[in-house]
Amino acid sequence: xxxxxxxxxxxxxxxxxxxxxxxxxxxxxxxxxxxxxxxxxxxxxxxxxxxxxxxxxxxxxxxxxxxxxxxxxxxxxxxxxxxxxxxxxxxxxxxxxxxxxxxxxxxxxxxxxxxxxxxxxxxxxxxxxxxxxxxxxxxxxxxxxxxxxxxxxxxxxxxxxxxxxxxxxxxxxxxxxxxxxxxxxxxxxxxxxxxxxxxxxxxxxxxxxxxxxxxxxxxxxxxxxxxxxxxxxxxxxxxxxxxxx
Length: 245
Fold this sequence. Notes:
Blueprint: H1 7-10, H2 59-106
């Protein structure tokens, strides 16, 4: 059967129109190199005859086949290099994203502090000077009042449930009927404060100064008093809960 040639391809390879009756040169998958030069030599008893059984080929065919093999090898190497490059860049981007995510996740939430804010539950009044203020009956439950000064303030019937009052200065403040349940008052200064009928259930008064304070009618169920200074100048023993030992 006569093979029909593709002129659009054949014109680039003059003289190489047909390799054999089975197909065209550009369909050939052979590399063009003599494999006998690259393979491990077999033992003599396994070697074939010295006669070359291949049909003679034009030098142009062999050169073309070698050039095509070299080009294919270069393309594969280029693709491998680009693939590694893209994977490397992707890995760097992933590491950066994870690093930024960890920073955002671990960074503390910045809470705005403003001592002029109106009193409300959860307000941040830490390190504020509020001495002598009239805060009677206001709701400051859950507020952050760390290291703030309420010396001499009117805090009657105030709600300070679960508020943070560690290191707060409440000397001579009027806390009659105040709700201080579950509040944190570690190392707070309550010297000469009026805590009559105040609710101090489960509050933490460890290391607090209660010297001269009025605790008449106050509820002290579950209150922690480790190392607190009692109104009669006694220092409560470690593990004191509900009463000073």
